[in-house]
Amino acid sequence: MGSVSLKLDHSNWVSSVAALPYRASKAALHMVTAELIYEFKDEANVKFFTVCPGFTVSNLGPNNTVENGAKAVDEAVRPLVGIVEGERDGEGNGFLHAGGQYPW
Length: 104
Fold this sequence. Notes:
There is one protein chain. This protein has four helices and three strands; from the N terminus they run ααβααββ. It is α+β, with helices and mostly antiparallel strands. The chain has one domain. The chain has a three-stranded mixed β-sheet, with helices on both faces. The longest helix has 20 residues, at 20-39. The radius of gyration is 15 Å and the shape is globular.
């Protein structure tokens, strides 16, 4: 939902989802991340990550349920744990999801 590139890719199912305020907040978060990446570009040991946990059970809306295909929170958080433990350091300064990276 936060990728401008995926929104403009009309072959992707995400592009048809209408969620302007949510999408705008994610785009703003990406710009904050980009600014931090630039600000700390000379610091070799500093990495920033923007992460999409995927469709997860939450109280964000009535459809965020297991019955509708949302992942349980303990499953959605696993990629975040991998980032904290350094398993994805090579993907630093990117927009990550469980299986790789999304375009900004």
